[in-house]
Design goal:
This is Scopoletin 8-hydroxylase. Belongs to the iron/ascorbate-dependent oxidoreductase family. It holds the Pfam family 2OG-FeII_Oxy. InterPro entries: DIOX_N, IPNS-like_FE2OG_OXY, IPNS-like_sf, Oxoglu/Fe-dep_dioxygenase_dom, Plant_2OG-oxidoreductases. Keywords: Iron, Metal-binding, Oxidoreductase, Vitamin C. The protein is α+β, with helices and mostly antiparallel strands and about 350 residues long. About 30% of the residues lie in helices and about 20% in strands. It has twelve helices and 15 strands. The strands form three sheets. It has an eight-stranded mixed beta sheet with strand order 2-3-11-8-13-6-5-4. Strand 2 (about 60), helix 3 and strand 3 form a beta-alpha-beta unit. The radius of gyration is 20 Å and the shape is globular. The model has no long low-confidence stretch (mean pLDDT about 95). The structure holds 2-oxoglutaric acid and fe (ii) ion. Fe (ii) ion binds next to loops.
Length: about 350
């Protein structure tokens, strides 16, 4: 029984090292959250008084047609002020979205032994990884989350190495979402008034990863987090299920229409969330924003499926020269994406500290 863990270390071993995950912990008959998962007061998420961000999703099908300019403006404005937006008519069929959620549940309902076939060191590919929390050995409080991360190299490898329960749908999601991502990125780059070579755009979107997140039911949601506050790296396409729990941190807007702070993004069926990550804030010399976000747990299980689009490790990321000239200052230095990502994965989630790595000194 989980409740009989004699120490925090034996619990850690059971969850992290032995690969039972939070799911295994819950299945072992837990009735209250272990100390190791209890967040400090300031990181806990209170449901009472939650403010919701109820802004209509952007209809991407209208990019073709007379309203093209209006849609482009909406996208740009969202990225400049919020760092995220939601989309409908995004080119990913609704049945595929349903299958993705089903397949995530199928994978996480496997036994620990089966899931552990994808643990680091055991997994047939270094690009496929089953795990729990984010960087458990660096975290004071663990995150209430298990995940399977599927890195893309080519279709053949994906179909060979990704888990059978989800490989086909995850690959379809990657392919179809990538078309939309490409369109959005072209719009964002054009709006900066620069022209990038095709090879540079491909380089900026050259690392693709489908992550399925599983947040088991939690006996004390008020004490835990599913994912702590963080910003993403490049551009993320996120599918959340009907449970809800995604929060974004917003600045006060120019008209003081909201008071800033945390807002929940209620799930809307068929809608995808586009999350802008740090590299767009860097490239645009701060014109675009990466959005700080986090996930609440609940007494019900929740899944989310993210397609992370990031640069190739060899890509250099710095503010676009033309913008630095115009602004008279570079707010960020040029970093090798590999260095940025090494830093990203050696720290526990803590707000936008991942971006500080590239700040000019
Ligand atoms: O589960 C969610 O809604 C968000 C997931 C997320 O932020 C991430 O995987 O980076
Ligand atoms: Fe995220």
């Amino acid at each position: 029984m989980a409740s009989s863990f004699s120490s925090s270390d034996s619990l850690y071993d059971f969850v992290v090292k032995d690969g039972n995950g939070v799911k295994g912990l819950m299945d072992s008959g837990l009735s209250k959250v272990p100390q190791r998962y209890i967040q400090p007061e300031e990181e806990r998420i209170k449901i009472v008084g939650t403010r919701k961000h109820n802004v209509s999703p952007i209809d991407l099908s209208k990019l073709k047609g007379p309203n093209h300019k209006k849609v482009v403006d909406e996208i740009v404005r969202s990225v400049e002020t919020l760092g995220f937006f939601q989309v409908v008519n995004h080119g990913v069929p609704l049945e595929l979205l349903e299958s993705l959620k089903d397949s995530a549940h199928k994978f996480f309902s496997l036994s620990a032994e089966e899931k552990c076939l994808f643990s680091p060191g055991v997994s047939p590919s270094t690009k496929v990884k089953y795990g729990t929390s984010f960087v458990p050995d660096k975290e004071k409080a663990l995150e209430w989350k298990d995940y399977i991360s599927m890195g893309y190299t080519n279709d053949e490898d994906a179909l060979q190495y990704w888990p059978n329960q989800c490989k086909e749908v995850a690959l379809d999601y990657l392919k179809l979402s990538s078309k939309m991502v490409r369109k959005i990125v072209e719009i964002l780059i054009e709006n900066l008034g620069v022209k990038l070579e095709e090879s540079r755009i491909e380089g900026l979107l050259g690392t693709k990863l489908v992550n399925m997140n599983y947040y088991p039911p939690c006996p004390n949601p008020e004490l835990t987090v599913g994912i702590g506050r963080h910003s993403d790296t490049g551009i993320t396409v996120l599918l959340q299920d009907h449970i809800g729990g995604l929060y974004v941190k917003l600045d006060k807007d120019d008209n003081n229409n909201n008071h800033g702070g945390w807002f929940e993004i209620p799930p809307i069926p068929g809608v995808l969330v586009i999350i802008i990550g740090d590299i767009f804030q860097i490239l645009s010399n701060g014109k675009y924003k990466s959005v700080e976000h986090r996930v609440r747990t609940s007494t019900e299980s929740r899944v989310s499926i993210a397609l992370f689009n990031s640069p190739k490790p060899t890509e250099k990321i710095g503010p676009v020269e033309e913008l630095v000239k115009k602004d008279g200052v570079a707010y960020y230095r040029e970093v090798l994406f590999q260095d940025y990502i090494n830093n990203y994965f050696t720290h526990a989630h803590y707000g936008k500290n991942s971006l500080d790595f590239a700040k000019s000194t």
